[in-house]
Amino acid sequence: LELDALHSDGRHFPVEIQIEEVLQGEQCVYAAFVRDLTERRAMEAEVARQRELIHQQEKLAALGTLLGGVAHELNNPLAVVIGRASILEDALAGTDDEKTVVKLREAANRCHRIVRTFLAMARDTRPRPGQVALNDLLAGALEFAGYNLRNAGITVTTEFAPDLGNIPGDYDQLVQAFVGLIINAQQALENHDGHRTLRVRTQQSTHNAAILVRIEDSGPGIAADVRARAFEPFFTTKAFGEGGGSGLAVARGVFESHGGSIAIEDMTPSGCAIVVNLPAGETT
Q1: CA-to-CA distance for 187 and 239, rounded, in angstroms?
Q2: Is 256 or 239 the better-scoring residue by pLDDT?
Q3: What is the mean pLDDT of residues 190-217?
Q4: 239-264 burial: b if 16+ Cβ within 10 Å, else e
Q5: pLDDT tens digit string along 87-125?
Q6: What is the spatial distance between Cα 221 and Cα 264, in angstroms, rounded to a whole number?
Q7: What tens digit of pLDDT does each residue of 228-247 get?
Q8: Range of weakest confidence among 58-72, 162-176, 232-246
Q9: How confident is the model at residue 223 (pLDDT cuts 50, 70, 90)?
């Protein structure tokens, strides 16, 4: 039998009890052997943890293969759209339809950059170096998600630190990561009965060595057991069809490739905050 035993110091610990029947003449007695299983359970837990790590690495590899395949399939039709849009833009120059075609070409170019980002992540390439104005990037990410945020009745506020300057990084990868975080917050708020607010803040550390980005929502918060697994690839608490569970894992990969980090700060019952730390760069 495996049971929980009570130690003399008051703590519970796992034991294995083996009971043997012993006959002494006509008398029957029982001998019990008790073995402490604490060390064995710890070893089993470590083996399970290592097995899970290998499993997560395999899932990340599968995600990379999936992203690479999707990106390659989208590249050719996107090239056609971009080319045709450029031809139309030249043909309609000076007309009322020119602005519409420009928006079409810009949207297609954005899709092309997203595909290129997918390929970069699938190939595990380093970010392309550049200088990124983080406040402008976040404003653009909020604008990109603005329609869905407004439809969900979410009030958005921003607190951007002035003179934040630029940070070194890949604009396309960073904007995709932050858009994903904003969409996650939106989805958390959609089914929330209370006041729906989203606040995005930036600030520079005391020694100007890092930039802190906080994305705070007033949703239901995240349970401790979910927070512990939130960054695992394909782990999700969403209903089928609402998300594949790769968003936070991909975002963490992007921020870590930029020398930064990401963490979840619980603010239950008033929501939660995603905290991103990125190395500071040039100041304005």
Answers
A1: 11
A2: 256
A3: 86
A4: eeeeeebbbbbbbbbbbebbebebeb
A5: 998 999 888 888 888 888 888 887 777 676 566 555 555
A6: 10
A7: 667 775 555 554 334 444 56
A8: 232-246
A9: low
Coil vs helix vs strand at 190: helix
What residues contact 156, with CB distance under 8 A and at least 6 apart?
142, 146, 149, 197, 198, 199, 200
Closest CA to 144 of 133, 156, 132: 156
Cβ(98)–Cβ(137) under 8 Å? no
pLDDT number for residue 242 = 45
On the question of pLDDT at 81 being above 70, the answer is yes
DSSP per-residue codes, 104-158: HHHHHHHHHHHHHHHHHHHTTPPPPP-EEEHHHHHHHHHHHTHHHHHHTT-EEEE
Q: How far apart are CA 74 and CA 242, in angstroms?
A: 22
Whether the CB-CB separation of 268 and 209 falls below 8 Å is answered with no
3-state secondary structure of 284: coil
Tokens describing residue 187 = 């989805």
Return the biggest CA–CA distance within the chain: 113
Strands (E), the chain: 2-6, 12-24, 27-36, 131-133, 155-159, 166-168, 197-204, 210-217, 261-266, 272-279
Length of the chain, in residues = 284
Q: Which of 113, 77, 217, 72 is nearest to 157 (CA)?
A: 217
Tokens 């869905």 found at: 148
Strand partners, 210: 279
Give me Rg for the CA atoms of the chain: 27
State the pTM of this model.
0.56
How many other C-beta atoms are found inside a 10 Å radius of the C-beta of residue 152? Answer: 16
